[in-house]
């Protein structure tokens, strides 16, 4: 049995089927030049600048009949033409482990750490992170595109198939967002979250899955100042349909209870409906992932708890052997659940998108040309209102290699 998207928490693949292979050592380096229209504002006038980046990367992807490990490390060195104070070195490392402990028991662990000073250089940072079908969506949050920030996300899941068409499982998640210099992000603050889940997964037919899941989450914002604690409990019914091997359609929904404690305001609690829908498709030459979620969460640099409506989409097509096109879009709107705070911290919305075209010159050399656009509106958050819009054009040249492992 599979663990379908509503309970697996795994991101949908964004590469095409022909680009995914196991038991390989991959590496390379990318050189990028980008133009940012709104790097900062001085006297209400936007300051634009060019930046140049060098991004080496190394990936180890090993698989056996019972074990699959993927480790990726990719630092990035960014230099600005005029505003040299923004020069920085970023870090990005991720690890995924899948282990079939017995014939019927599987374990999966994931962890990622990102030190960033330029959100536009990181995949999904400007559109709601990686796309999953899980209702336990990422924390609500605004994006400080050129502020130093550290993100760490970890998760684990274990599943046990106790009959031919029945499975139970559970897992946990933990996230932490910190801003090394809070003076760069007035109105935002450090935050963290943790949670757990349990599910019953049933397979009525070879192409259909249904079941029930329980999810618990706790979000803590601004622990060093005005602390906000948000706790949620949710019960979901879900259904996933695989009309073909490369395509999955999922929907989940149910009641969610939230409780918010934020000094010096009185605590509040209530029930609200929560729903998630997603689709994932991956063929040899194309891939598509899209999701919509309506839930209550907190954290993500914002103070308080919010009704969050988020929608994300990613599509990639290998038009010919030499040309590929790719696009990403995201929309999020967050509304404060506490009516006492709705006037001072109502929340806001984010709209972003990326479009690019890729040219393969050889097995190892690839060029890419693209455009990114982001708009945010969060009243009362100076870090966002000072930079509500950004337009970015970029061109990159990459060299990559891969070597088979264990052959």
What brief labels describe this structure?
globular; 407 residues; Porin; 19-stranded antiparallel β-sheet; 2 helices
Write structural notes for this entry.
- There is one protein chain.
- With about 400 residues, the protein is mainly beta.
- It has a single domain (about 5-405), classed as Beta Barrel (Porin), CATH 2.40.160.
- About 0% of the residues lie in helices and about 65% in strands.
- It contains 2 helices and 19 strands.
- The protein has a 19-stranded antiparallel beta sheet that branches.
- A hairpin with a 3-residue loop joins β13 (about 270-280) and β14.
- Residues about 125-130 have low confidence and may be disordered.
Global shape? globular
Low-confidence stretches: 123-128
Quickly give the structural class. mainly beta
Report the top-level CATH class. Answer: Mainly Beta
The CATH topology is what?
Answer: Porin
Return the average pLDDT rounded to an integer: 88
Kindly give the count of domains: 1
Counting H and I runs of at least 4 residues, what is the number of helices?
Answer: 2
DSSP strand tally: 19
- Biggest sheet overview: 19 strands, antiparallel
The string of secondary-structure elements, in order, is HEEEEEEEEEEEEEEEEEEHE
Helix-residue proportion: under 10%
CATH architecture type: Beta Barrel
Please identify the oligomeric state.
Answer: single chain
CA radius of gyration is 21 Å
Distance between the termini: 30 Å
Give the strand content.
over 45%
């Amino acid at each position: 049995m599979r663990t379908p998207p509503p309970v697996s928490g795994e991101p949908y693949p964004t590469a095409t089927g022909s680009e995914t292979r196991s038991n390989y050592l991959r590496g390379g380096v990318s050189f990028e030049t980008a133009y940012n229209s709104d790097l900062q504002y001085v006297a209400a006038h936007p300051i634009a600048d060019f930046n140049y980046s060098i991004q080496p990367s190394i990936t180890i992807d090993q698989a056996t009949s019972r074990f699959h490990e993927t480790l990726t490390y990719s630092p990035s060195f960014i230099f600005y033409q005029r505003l040299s104070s923004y020069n920085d070195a970023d870090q990005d490392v991720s690890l995924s482990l899948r282990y079939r402990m017995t014939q019927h028991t599987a374990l999966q662990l994931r962890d990622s750490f990102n030190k960033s000073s330029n959100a536009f250089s990181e995949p999904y940072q400007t559109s709601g992170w990686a796309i999953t079908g899980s209702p336990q969506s990422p924390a609500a949050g605004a994006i400080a595109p050129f502020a130093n920030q550290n993100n760490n996300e970890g998760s684990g899941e274990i599943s046990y198939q106790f009959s031919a068409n029945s499975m139970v499982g559970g897992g946990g998640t933990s996230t932490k967002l910190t801003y090394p210099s809070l003076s760069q992000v007035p109105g935002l603050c450090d935050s963290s979250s943790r949670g757990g889940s349990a599910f019953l997964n049933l397979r009525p037919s070879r192409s259909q899955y249904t079941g029930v899941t329980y999810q618990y989450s706790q979000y803590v914002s601004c622990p060093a100042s005005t602390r906000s604690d948000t706790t949620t409990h949710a019960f979901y019914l879900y259904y996933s349909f695989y009309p073909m091997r490369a395509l999955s359609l999922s929907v989940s929904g149910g009641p969610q209870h939230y409780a918010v404690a934020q000094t010096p305001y009185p605590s509040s609690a209530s029930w609200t409906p929560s729903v998630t829908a997603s689709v994932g498709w991956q063929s040899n030459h194309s891939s598509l992932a899209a999701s919509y979620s309506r839930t209550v969460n907190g954290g993500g640099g914002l103070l308080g708890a919010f009704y969050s409506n988020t929608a994300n989409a990613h599509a990639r097509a290998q038009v010919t052997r030499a040309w590929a096109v790719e696009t990403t879009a995201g929309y999020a709107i967050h509304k404060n659940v506490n009516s006492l705070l709705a006037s001072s911290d109502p929340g806001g919305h984010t709209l972003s998108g990326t479009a690019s075209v890729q040219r393969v010159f050889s097995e190892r050399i690839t060029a890419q040309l693209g455009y990114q656009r982001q708009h945010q509106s969060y009243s009362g958050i100076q870090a966002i209102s000072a930079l509500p819009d950004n337009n970015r054009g970029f061109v990159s040249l990459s060299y990559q290699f891969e070597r088979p492992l264990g052959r």
